[in-house]
Amino acid sequence: MGKVMLVLASLIGLCCFTINTYAFSPSGWTNAHATFYGGRGACGYGNLYSTGYGTRTAALSTALFNDGASCGQCYKIICDYKTDPRWCIKGRSVTITATNFCPPNFALPNNNGGWCNPPLMHFDMAQPAWEKIGIYRGGIVPVLFQRVPCKKHGGVRFTVNGRDYFELVLISNVAGAGSIQSVSIKGSKTDWMAMSRNWGANWQSNAYLNGQSLSFRVTTSDGETRVFQNIVPANWAFGQTFSSPVQF
């Protein structure tokens, strides 16, 4: 009987682990368009190679960017071959991370150059990612996309910038939902304090925390919360990045 209970407990534990690995569920498919650009872009992530995002990235149009709240979200994109068999690669998909904003160009019409104008849903993708699904000469292709869980190597990273009474913390390499809803910070001598989004994936605090170890409480856009206890040691300096073993 004891062996049976042990096996059942192991199976229940495995089941729960599997369910919680990627709690964020994919959305349905939505129509959009996609172009490509040659630059690396950013939501404040800086060098996309050193921060782990590589070339599978995209800038989002206003309708998708949500004033930076969508930074870090992941999307699976396929070229709509039925609509455009000439420039789409049939049966291919690519998953990208939102790392930049594609600004509107109101001097051009929505169907001729103003691809990122509201209310259009548009992805201006890094060229290597775009060429996974489209033929270079096409320039712009119709796509279908769905938001999917992000899968990242390693844990969440925290880069502390700013000066004295101003901490500007870039939070990157976030798995699961990818995008962040809220952040709190705690020094080793303070209580928890809410941070505010400064821009993109950068969150700010106006407290003097020099010489204190720092902890963060992060909630992603699907409501999942993780506490990163003392992830930043007391001898930290502005400009440093700290990696956590904790992930969503």
UniProtKB/TrEMBL annotation:
InterPro entries per record: Expan_Lol_pI, Expansin, Expansin/allergen_DPBB_dom, Expansin_CBD, Expansin_CBD_sf, RlpA-like_DPBB, RlpA-like_sf
Ranges for domain Expansin-like EG45: 40-155
Superkingdom of the organism of origin: Eukaryota
Chain ranges passing through the membrane: none
Classification via PROSITE patterns: EXPANSIN_CBD (PS50843), EXPANSIN_EG45 (PS50842)
GO biological process: anatomical structure morphogenesis; plant-type cell wall organization
Domain Expansin-like CBD: 165-244
Subcellular location field: Secreted, Cell wall; Membrane
Record keywords: Cell wall, Cell wall biogenesis/degradation, Membrane, Secreted, Signal
Topology relative to the membrane: Peripheral membrane protein
Key word Glycosyltransferase present: no
UniProt key word RNA-binding: no
Signal sequence, start to end: 1-23
Cellular component GO terms, alphabetical: extracellular region; membrane
Role noted for this protein: Causes loosening and extension of plant cell walls by disrupting non-covalent bonding between cellulose microfibrils and matrix glucans. No enzymatic activity has been found.
Record-stated family: Belongs to the expansin family. Expansin A subfamily.
This protein's name: Expansin
Record organism: Abrus precatorius (Indian licorice)
Gene name of the encoded protein: LOC113845855
